[in-house]
Design a protein that fits this description.
Number of helices: 3
Number of domains: 1
CATH class: Alpha Beta
Distance between the termini: 29 Å
Order of helices and strands: HHEEEHEE
Helix content: 25-40%
Radius of gyration: 14 Å
Strand order of the largest sheet: 1-2-3-4-5
Largest sheet: 5 strands, mixed
Number of strands: 5
Length: 132
C-alpha cells in the first residue's frame, strides 16, 4: 500500500503521516481562507474519524534545566502507541521564519521529540516536520 506521507528517515513517521493525511483531507474539503479555529475544529473531527487519539488546545509544561517554568497551550497533542506529536496550526498566506522558530522553541522547551507545523491559509497546505 502506498503511504505518501511516511518517510522512515523521520521519527514517528507513520503517526505524522496519518496526521498529514487527515490535514490534507481538511484542506481539500474546505480550501484556504478560513480562520484557524475553523481548521482546528475540522481537524479534530477528521482525527476522530481516523481513530487517532488527541487533545485539542492542550497545555504542555515548559521546562528549563530540569524544572517547570511555565505552561503553553498548543493546538494539538496527537498520539498512538509509538509516541506523541505536538501540532501547531496557522491559517495565513505563508509561513514565516518566526512561525518555524516559535514551533521549534515550543518543541524543545516541552520535551516532545516530534512536531508538525501546518498552514491552512496558503494556495497549498504548508507542512513542516520538526524534530527535537
Amino acid at each position: 500500500m502506498n503511504k505518501p506521507y511516511v518517510d522512515n528517515r523521520f521519527p514517528l513517521s507513520a503517526l505524522t503521516g496519518k496526521i498529514i493525511r487527515a490535514a490534507q483531507e481538511v484542506y481539500y474539503t474546505l480550501g484556504p481562507g478560513f480562520r484557524e479555529l475553523i481548521y482546528q475544529r475540522a481537524l479534530a473531527r477528521e482525527l476522530a474519524m481516523q481513530g487517532l487519539e488527541f487533545e485539542r488546545e492542550a497545555w504542555m509544561d515548559i521546562r528549563y534545566k530540569g524544572g517547570k517554568v511555565g505552561r503553553k497551550r498548543v493546538d494539538f497533542i496527537i498520539g498512538d502507541e509509538t509516541g506523541s506529536v505536538m501540532l501547531e496550526m496557522k491559517a495565513k498566506g505563508e509561513l514565516e521564519n518566526v512561525d518555524v522558530i516559535q514551533a521549534l522553541s515550543y518543541l524543545k522547551a516541552s520535551g516532545y521529540k516530534v512536531g508538525l507545523l501546518l498552514n491552512f491559509g496558503a494556495q497549498k497546505l504548508g507542512i513542516k516536520r520538526l524534530a527535537n
